Amino acid sequence: MLLHHRLLPRLVFLPSTHTSTSASTLLRPPRLPRHLSLSPRFCALSHLAAPQTVDESDNEGPPHGDVQVKLALDRLFVPPGATVDAGDQEAVSARVLKGSNIVLGPYARGDAQVVNADFVKSSVRPDDCPRDGLPEFALVGRSNVGKSSLLNSIVRRKRLALTSKKPGKTQCINHFKVNDSWYLVDLPGYGYASAPQEARTNWDEFTRNYFLSRESLVSVFLLIDASIPAKKIDLDYASWLGQNKVPMTLVFTKCDKRKKKKNGGRRPEENVETFQGLIREYFEAAPPWIMTSSVTNQGRDEILLHMSQLRNYWLKH
Ligand SMILES: Nc1nc2c(ncn2[C@@H]2O[C@H](COP(=O)(O)OP(=O)(O)OP(=O)(O)O)[C@@H](O)[C@H]2O)c(=O)[nH]1
Ligand SMILES: [Mg+2]
Asked: What separation in Å is there between the alpha carbon of 109 and the centre of ligand 1?
């Protein structure tokens, strides 16, 4: 079993019981086999979250009283080691990171600042990646979604990772070491329509092999462009990560883009809400998500705190 699977308790898929609407049918990821629903290993950690009921009655009538508390808590990501008291919603909401559903737990400590960051190497095969076993986070998403820009924003450097207006800029698995103790990994994007089919498939396979084989991978950060409506390819990617039990955080990018007309008439917050609604149908519990902008640095400190708690938990277990 890969070490990083220990961070999975809240990222288990659930086959959807909802009836389809026309919008969600268009974007619906493939149905998941039943055996991927909650396993005993994950149940052992279910005290971390309020219990969830998934029968059809959940859809009947407006939530009220205890039910409302329960539904709200179900939408939070409660990190390993944290407990949530369903009767103390105020205390819980004080621990939720701004622009996210991520609750700050006991593993978030004072190591969430970037002191130094260096490019280490580009690898063309998962086997070529650094072998020092330090924990790492991989940034993946459609070409041009802003992976390299987010990396630069996180480490407060303008050009540590190369960015471009043209999709397809990043090639290979690029490792950047932060504070001499953990890695940020910049990856090639998926879904670049102008790339030759063969090259596109190879990069995709290459990235997915890395996710499946890399023992020091703490979590994948799947970037979604919040300035445009939800794309099926992103839901499919999230679905694939879930089916393969790869821990993930959804990172919404370009949240500074507010020109309604240019962005199909919808604000980033609306696109984020829609994406979450679609993804909720397939997860037993909400995956962690966070809103960011590499232009305003929105979400930068919050991402660092989230990474810190995941890393500290990973190192201790
Ligand atoms: N407004 C805005 N633009 C952004 C943001 N992040 C990235 N961009 C722009 O989006 C374009 C692509 O950014 P990159 O960081 O190169 O994207 P990438 O995902 O690394 O792309 P590939 O390496 O080609 O897969 C660049 O023109 C960036 O300036 C953001 O948060 N807000
Ligand atoms: Mg890039």
From this structure: 30
CA–CA separation, 295 and 4 (whole Å):
31
How many Å is the Cα radius of gyration of the chain?
Answer: 19
**pLDDT of the chain along its 317 residues, tens only?**
344 444 544 444 443 333 333 333 233 333 333 222 222 222 222 222 222 222 333 333 333 445 555 556 778 888 888 877 767 777 777 889 999 999 998 898 877 899 999 999 999 888 899 999 999 999 999 999 999 999 999 999 999 998 888 887 777 899 999 999 999 999 998 887 665 555 555 778 888 999 999 999 999 999 999 999 999 999 999 999 999 999 999 999 999 998 666 556 788 999 999 999 898 877 877 899 999 999 999 999 999 999 999 999 999 88
146 alpha-carbon distance from chain centroid? 14
With the most atoms of ligand 1 within 8 angstroms of its CB, the residue from 163, 255, 271, 296 to mutate is 163
Q: Other CB atoms closer than 10 Å to residue 16's CB: what's the count?
A: 17
Distance of alpha carbon 107 from the chain centroid: 18
Please name the residue whose Cα sits nearest to atom 21 of ligand 1: 144
Binding site membership of 227 for ligand 1 (Cβ less than 6 Å): no
